[in-house]
Amino acid sequence: MKEKAAELAVVSNKTFAASTAVNLHHYDISSALQTTLEFDELIAIFCNKIQHTIPHNGVEYTNPEFDLEYKRGVLARHSCSYALKVEEQQLGELKLTRSQRFSKDELKLLESLLCCLIYPLRNATLFQQALKMAFTDPLTKANNRTAFNDSLLREIKRAHRSGSHLSLIFVDVDHFKSINDQYGHECGDLALASVAAWLKESVRGSDAVYRYGGEEFVILLSDTDIDGAMVIGERIRADIESHTLAYGMDVLNLTASLGVATLKGDDTFDSLLKRADAAMYQAKRQGRNRVEAGF
Ligand SMILES: Nc1nc2c(ncn2[C@@H]2O[C@H](COP(=O)(O)OP(=O)(O)OP(=O)(O)O)[C@@H](O)[C@H]2O)c(=O)[nH]1
Asked: Which residue ranges does the record assign to the GGDEF domain (predicted)?
């Protein structure tokens, strides 16, 4: 049992090789852990299964790679913590707490049982990494078009059901072709990655920036009406205009044209997209570096 993270006992697949023979309890836990690939569900199942052999009041699981913090119960005075690993792959840290000390026998049993958890956790890691890749644009690290289609469909259903507002903003970089032509595609790629980063900063706290294609991005704003979306659109436009992009000895200034639309009662996926897109083209026609609403 260790109290400080720096002195964590390590449970890895090597511990498994040294552990006692697999018994029915291990088998029961292993079977239950095969039912999900979600980290928090795996931890909850594991802790439920060991509760009667190793009673505990509080559980804390952290996995910085996936920005995950799972807590349940009441964190008490005595704790035991484990850094979970398979080979060199970190799988997060698990801490159990309660008001009485954990005995040596309990800790030995817990280490042995934790071996049932590490491979399901490793599978969850691989699955979550694959999911992340499938929904991320590799150049800009923004969410990709597939992620956008999924999110927009889900958000439209939610907004229609609950009567809440939903807005979206199309952002199209102005005269982007001339950046490629003048400075080359490498510079164009850098510009796109930079714009994506600026957009994420502008809508801080939200994960709703998507690369729609080419030099076009889209931002999905839940619970936001047209007035709110226009304010955010104007902030984004000003942010892009105020940034500079250093490329070798050159300093580039970028602008973008934005189209904003808010979901109406009879809107579908296509009609909402069409209004935002039309508003963006209106902004281009009006001289670029502008925000227009599509009503
Ligand atoms: N470097 C780079 N260029 C891209 C990428 N995707 C699309 N483009 C370029 O983006 C440019 C888009 O040009 P246009 O559609 O003519 O638009 P524009 O020059 O931005 O002009 P306006 O939108 O009218 O202001 C094309 O030259 C594409 O080749 C990419 O991933 N990387």
From this structure: 164-295
The residue nearest atom 26 of ligand 1, judged by CA position, is: 177
- pTM, two decimals, is 0.77
For residue 68, what are the β-bridge partners?
Answer: 63
d(CA 171, CA 21): 60
Residue in 141, 180, 257 to alter for ligand 1 test, most ligand atoms within 8 A of Cβ: 180
Residue 139 located in a structural domain: no
In a domain, 263, yes or no: yes
Q: Coil, strand or helix: which one is 114?
A: helix
Q: What sign does the dihedral 255-256-257-263 (CA atoms) show?
A: negative
Residue 292 catalytic?
A: no
Say how many domains are in the chain. Answer: 2
**Whether 245 and 157 share a structural domain:** yes
Residue nearest to atom 11 of ligand 1 (CA): 177
Q: Give pLDDT tens digits along the chain (295 positions).
A: 444 445 677 777 666 554 554 467 888 999 999 999 999 999 999 999 999 999 999 999 999 988 889 999 988 899 999 999 998 899 999 999 999 999 999 999 999 999 999 999 999 999 999 999 999 999 999 999 999 999 999 999 999 999 999 999 999 999 999 999 999 999 999 999 999 999 999 996 666 999 999 999 999 999 999 999 999 999 999 999 999 999 999 999 999 999 999 999 989 999 999 999 999 999 999 999 999 999 8
Tell me the helix, strand and coil percentages in the chain, rounded to 5: 50, 25, 25
Q: How far is the CA of 187 from the centre of ligand 1 (A)?
A: 12
CATH code, domain with 123: 3.30.450.40
